[in-house]
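As promised in the previous annual report, we have extended the structural survey to additional targets. Below is the entry for Dynamin-like GTPase OPA1, mitochondrial.
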Amino acid sequence: MLKTPVWFISIDPRFKHIRPVVYTVSRVNFSGFTTPGSNGGNGTAGTGGSNHSTAWSRYNYYRQQEFLRPPNASGWQYYGGQQQRHYGMLVGRVLRGVLKLRYLVLGSAIGGGVTLNKRYEEWKDGLPDMKWLEEVFPDNEKWAGFTKNLLAVKDAVKDSIEIDPRLKQLSEHKLNEWRQWFDQRLDNAIEAAETQQNPQIETTKEELRAKNTVNAKGLSAEDSRKRVDTLQAQVDSLQTEIMNVQLKYQREVEKLEKENRDLRQQYLILKTNRKQPTKKRIKKSLIDMYSEVLDELSGYDTSYTTADHLPRVVVVGDQSSGKTSVLESIAQARIFPRGSGEMMTRAPVKVTLSEGPYHVAQFRDSEREYDLTKESDLAELRRDVEIRMRNSVRGGKTVSMDVISMTVKGPGLQRMVLVDLPGIISTQTVDMAPDTRDQIKHMTEHYMSNPNAIILCIQDGSVDAERSNVTDLVSQCDPLGKRTIFVLTKVDLAEDLADPNRIRKILSGKLFPMKALGYFAVVTGRGRKDDSIETIREYEEKFFKNSKLFQSGVTMSHQVTTRNLSLAVADRFWKMVRETIEQQADAFKATRFNLETEWKNNFPRLRESGRDELFEKAKGEVLDEVVNLSQVSAKKWEELMNSKLWEKLSSYVFENIYLPAAQSGSQNSFNTMVDIKLRQWAEQALPAKSVEAGWEALQKEFQHLMEVARRTPDHDDLYDNLKSAVIDEAIRRHSWEDKAIDMLRVIQLNTLEDRSVHDKQEWDQAVRFFEASVKDKLQATETTIGEMFGPSTSQKWLHWRSSTEEQNKRRQVKSELDKILDSDSKHSPTLSYDELTTVRKNLQRGNVEVETDYIRETWYPIYRRHFLKQALNRAYDCRKAYYLYSQQGSDCEVNCSDVVLFWRIQQVIKVTANALRQQVINREARRLDKEIKEVLDEYGEDDEKKLQLLTGKRVQLAEELIRVRQIQEKLEEFINALNLEK
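The corresponding structure token record, generated without further manual editing, is:
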């Protein structure tokens, strides 16, 4: 029997970075194990002789041959001399291979004996040929006996195995790494699902709608419809919110990219120590210059009455007639979002086409370029267009008049400007605004009313012509057809259905009442959303080449394919541009002259400053006032804080602390109640009220500085609305630092613990403070009494005032109550039941009927005035009582507890005002400055805010004059370039 051996087992090489795990085993029976070299006897501790010599010689032999390397001798402990060493070495060699099972034991929480044996057999089968160890290891029968004993070891060591804590920490660390990796992948997947177009969204919405419909079978039809509408509204709201976040994120990324480029340029300039190179002026293409003119005009004359008569191609048609597909075929890229039967075009989209070496697209207000040869960029472009459309729709509307401007450049593109409009609808669905149909019709008429607009009228060839709504509108706006081009789409679907004569009539202009410059037939797709523009164009050319309908002489070859259509539209577009551009330039010259004359007559000594320039000037003035805030003296801050603190705290001090304690009846009760209430106040409400008072003092002083600035001779009242809005918004956002409350609480509690007035000067200040406070309350009480009991006799005669019936009734009650106070000047604050009864009976003798509550209401101000007068008398008595107080303390003959209380309040106000003053100077003024700068930056990027806050004839006239100058300059620049091209 081996007693308490200790084994230090070496760790598998895969875990060398972990320190060895120590297993402590007690009272283990190894009977049945035979020492190598013996005749089958039991090898026990203490067995020596030849067995030991044979085993040790074999061990040395194998160690020399590097077949078996024992562990470091320093890791073993020996007991019992040489015989114990022989047994320990043998057991160590055996367990070096066998006890690798400890990892399986740890992994399966020390499983049963059968599972352990099975795992061991599997492990043993995977070992290489180790026949040379048969002389060292026992045979199978002996090993079976050892296995049984090993199972017993399992039970014995089950409760004594301790895992190294560092191994646990390592496992937990690895597990946390895997968990973080999985969470990150999950978040990425969720974000991708939210930000990318998911083809299952529509299916999910239909499933939800169907589910709600099934659930609503037990309800009325109206309730079911409301549930479906509510769910749909929630889905739409979530989609809109996601799109808003995406748009905001995109703008921030673009802003950061721009700043990064500017900073990199500045860094390179500083690094090379050279002067900043002059920017090389990039030569703009003719169509880009023309597009910039149209962008300038888009916000100047939205009614097309006098100013904006420049040509552009207006794409109009019924919903799902294929107008967007026609525009994409001309642009040679799928740049617009599309849906199945759903209105996708919700706002006008102005597309400027121009020729260039690369096929790219770019929004007017963004510097990012989308590579139209990459499907990923195309998907992002379509998503951004949809985001902009949804963000342009406000106030529950379905469509918007806000224009989305983009430029598309690419090889072989015809130069022109096209405007894609929402499709005209016959019936509006329940998810649309009630005026959607009228809004779309008004928008279409608005763009077609431009006398120089080229109308690209799209008609679906796969439906009956009588179902068309757009042809009537086009014929009304252009009855002679001098600027209309008719396009028949989806003719591949109409080939097997339509009558050839009917198609001939349409393309010859004899079927519809409208007239046009030209008639075209195109194919813009095969009904597959994933088809590229190249595939569609090949399909279109192949169709017209092989179509029996169009080979039979229905139309001429120049009237088919999108390619011929784009050539014809571009030719007409430039012809109208050359005919009208000079007239537009002359019109703006005359407008500019009129505006400049009006400005000189109204504002002869001022320069024309637009809203952006005015805003920057106002911004500088506001920030200057913030600087002046830091120049306020410490003395003035403390005066402001003292005044504001007492204004916020006086009511609580009188009503909740002083009056209840003073009316308690004795000086000891007064002091006890005061201590309790002051501590509760300092722990709860006082710090928060102090911070509130400090913030109001800061706000008051800042507004005072702004008022002083308004009274200066050079003040311009044009900025007043903007300044007030900025300051109010900054003050609304700003909050006092959180840790200030905790700091004030400690200071105030420590100050209130002091109950002894230190010197005569402080005593006199406390007496004056007490007198002034009581007088203020007494004056307020007199005002209340005057309103309740009516004018006095002198007021009646001098001011010709009279009392009401109610006031006369109150006076009679007052006369009875005065008798009670005259008989007992130290009366308690409340009336007893007997006193109330006596007052009522006395009034009844005079035929005055009153209720008990009525008497109590009358008693309250009367007793309050009586008490305040007594308190004021005590204040007079305490003026010269400091010597008695300093000698006798609380046992002073003159009761001056009131003065001590107000001295403590005064000290709290002083230390609080000092702390608040330090916080304002050190922290809060700078934090307010930061808030004002943030508000100014936000307003500077919000054109609507500037339009709302900077108003007046001066601003409007300057804005219009600046805009007309810009348009005229761009028109002249374009005309010069156009003449050079001729």
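The chain has 33 helices and eleven strands. The chain has a mean pLDDT of 75. These points will be discussed at the next consortium meeting with the crystallography subgroup.
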